[in-house]
Specification:
alpha/beta, globular, 293 residues
């Protein structure tokens, strides 16, 4: 799909299932041109058929595939997006997940950290020219980057700068909590950097969602999800649509939301020095990986 000039474009990662799929569908129903990103071939094909059929008012949908534990895949996906459009109005960094053990990727990164933080960091960085292109012709705050974080960020009292990826003493819940904390810190620093360009960055907590989120989690995580009161993916998707389109979240970037209302994240998530350091550490790590290509 080559997208026509001046059409509003959204990129949604993790669009093959769960929250991402529901969000991509709702945007396509509203008439947006949506580029989804997913990993599993079967789920990607099913989502593409469903969402394309649901598109209304000139909306369109296309699905790209990429494994976001690998930064070379993130770079390739960014290139494919740039080949289809010269603008991105909304980037929703939704893809992520939890693992049942430490898994080191062929690039040498830890998979939980890579998929939940490093991939959205890199994708956002690579798509900034397209985000700025869209923002140049719109009122400030119209173009947005939204991170799907989690209340799990509260279990972490800060990032371990000596072992940012939890490659040492690995515990699944702690590694996930740190990665979700990183989402909010990244959002704060991103907002500081791109607000002058007219771009707004926000983060949100989706709640406990009935999805395949814990499919790769350990027994404790799967038991927790099985016993929890869950909501349909459509509920957090509605909040993401609101964050993408409503006037209120287009003002004052670097905030954290749940159910269309602002919440105060943990003290560690409001540490602007840590946010700036995380950005620098992430850039250093990517340079060592020779990312994005």
């Amino acid at each position: 799909m080559a997208i026509e000039a001046n059409r509003r474009v959204a990129v949604v990662t993790g669009a093959s299932s769960g929250i991402g799929r529901a969000t991509a569908r709702q945007l396509a129903e509203l008439g947006w041109c949506v580029i989804g990103v997913g990993r599993d071939p079967r789920r990607c094909a099913e989502a593409e058929t469903e969402i394309a059929a649901a598109a209304r008012n000139g909306g369109e949908f296309t699905m790209l595939r990429g494994d976001f534990t690998l930064m070379r895949e993130v770079g390739r996906v960014a290139d494919e997006i740039a080949a289809r459009t010269d603008r991105v109005d909304v980037l929703i960094n939704n893809a992520g997940g939890v693992r049942d053990r430490k898994l080191v990727t062929p690039e040498g990164t830890e998979a939980t950290f890579a998929a939940n933080h490093l991939a959205p960091f890199l994708l956002t960085r690579e798509l900034l020219p397209l985000l700025r292109s869209a923002a140049a012709g719109l009122p400030p705050g119209s173009v947005r980057v939204i991170a799907v974080s989690s209340s799990a960020h509260r279990i972490s009292d800060g990032l371990d700068w000596a072992d940012l990826q939890s490659l040492g003493a690995f515990r699944t819940a702690a590694a996930y909590g740190r990665a979700k904390l990183a989402n909010i810190l990244f959002t704060r620093e991103l907002a500081r950097r791109v607000t002058p360009d007219g771009i707004t960055a926000q983060a949100m907590h989706p709640g406990v969602v009935a999805s395949n989120f814990a499919a790769h989690g350990d027994a404790a995580m799967q038991a927790h999800m099985a016993a929890a009161d869950t909501v349909s993916p459509d509920e957090p998707a509605e909040t993401l649509i609101w964050l993408a389109t409503d006037d209120e979240p287009g003002r004052g970037g670097g905030r954290y939301f749940h159910r269309k209302a602002e919440e105060i994240p943990s003290d560690a998530a409001r540490d602007d020095d840590a946010a700036a350091r995380l950005w620098a550490e992430s850039e250093t790590l990517l340079a060592r990986l020779a990312a994005p290509r």
